Amino acid sequence: MGIIEKMRLDGKKIFVTGGARGIGKSVATAFAEAGADIAIVDLDLEEAKKTARELEENNGIQSIAIKADVTNPEDVNAMIEQVLETFGRLDVAFCNAGICMNIPAEEMTYEQWKKVIDINLSGVFLTAQAAGKVMLKQGGGSIINTASMSGHIVNVPQPQCSYNASKAGVIQLTKSLAVEWAARNVRVNSISPGYIGTELTLNSPSLQPLIQQWNEMAPLGRMGKPEELQSICVYLAGDTSSFTTGSDFVIDGAFTCI
Ligand code: NAD
Fold first, then answer.
1. How far apart are the CA of 165 and the centre of ligand 1, in A?
2. 163 is annotated as an active-site residue
3. Is the distance from CB of 207 to CB of 158 less than 8 angstroms?
4. What CATH number does residue 108 fall under?
5. How much is the pLDDT for 208?
6. What positions belong to coiled-coil segments (predicted)?
7. What kind and span of H or E run contains 141?
8. Count of domains observed in the chain
9. Percent of the chain at pLDDT exceeding 90
């Protein structure tokens, strides 16, 4: 079997949080193209249903939509139960839901701080923990968490200390889970994208005016596209990455090199 065949995900069962749109939808599409069955997990059930339908129609795989808030342990447990009821097992978890708030540190309320940390860091912990429990029992699995280049550098000029702290937390959480679960065949890795064109960046009134500035700072002179994160996630989800765990993959067009 050639390497491309070995990288296919036929029959694997995967959930993607924040899968209705943006990076989650794009990576879920790649998983489906590689043959996996997918649960699209999102706060926005209508959009999640649309995405799941699209994946089924275009790829002949099975896809379901599940409404869940990743900050709510009951939602996360119910989501896992529904995934297991539908698919019978769980091979891959893409813990990807996240938000950003641009507020100067000295003006940020504790509630605003907590909201970002809850979704971006505690949400990844809750979903990875729930997935890990199933995978440890099954004897293996792969967890991919979405961090950010903001876990490595401080973005400018927008003030986003809670986001940066949450994403640095995701990178270290990923490494910690990878070490705890390595000997039991559950791999945990993260991706750290640079600026990617999604609703989060392109449709945010506060960020839109900054895009030109970011592009001028970027060695490639542009933002990334969600599709440019697909192949690394297919690699991490599949069996050819069996020696890859505890790693963070920066995909930023060399933004953090300078
Ligand atoms: P997006 O806003 O386009 O999509 C995020 C999705 O997550 C939405 O469908 C939203 O409904 C869902 N979501 C939000 N809160 C949720 C919750 N509590 N529970 C369940 N679902 C929830 O964003 P995106 O750009 O696709 O970002 C996806 C991930 O990638 C985030 O973790 C983000 O921090 C990270 N990221 C984005 C960029 C970028 O430039 N776009 C760069 C680096 C990292």
1. 16
2. yes
3. yes
4. 3.40.50.720
5. 87
6. none
7. strand 141-146
8. 1
9. 97
Of the candidates 162, 177, 152, 178, the residue with the CA atom closest to the CA atom of residue 118: 162
Ligand 1 binding pocket includes 252 (Cβ within 6 Å): no
Q: Cα of 131 to ligand 1 centre, how many Å? A: 19
Q: Atom of ligand 1 at shortest distance to CA of 97?
A: 7
Distance from C-alpha of 151 to C-alpha of 132, rounded to nearest angstrom: 23
63 is known as an active-site residue = no
Contact 44, 20 (CB under 8 A): yes
User: Is 35 domain-assigned?
Assistant: yes
Determine whether the shortest distance from the Cβ of 101 to ligand 1 is under 6 A.
no
What pLDDT, on the 0 to 100 scale, is given for residue 129? 99
Average pLDDT estimate for 140-144: 99
The ligand 1 atom nearest the CA atom of 47: 9
Alpha carbon nearest to ligand 1 atom 4, residue: 22
C-alpha Rg value of the chain to the nearest Å:
17
Q: Say whether 180 sits in a helix, a strand or coil.
A: helix
How many angstroms separate the CA atoms of 170 and 153, rounded? 14
Neighbouring CB atoms inside 10 A of 87's CB total 20
Phi-psi region of 118 (alpha: psi -120 to 50; beta: other; left: phi over 0): alpha
* 27: containing domain: 3-251
Tell me, yes or no, if 241 is annotated catalytic.
no
Tell me whether residue 257 is in a domain: no
* Ligand 1 contact via 20 beta carbon (within 6 Å): yes
Q: Is the pTM of this model over 0.85?
A: yes
**Burial zone of 46 (CB within 10 Å; 0-12 exposed, 13-18 middle, 19+ buried):** exposed
Give the burial class of 33: count Cβ atoms within 10 A of its Cβ; 0-12 exposed, 13-18 middle, 19 or more buried. Answer: middle
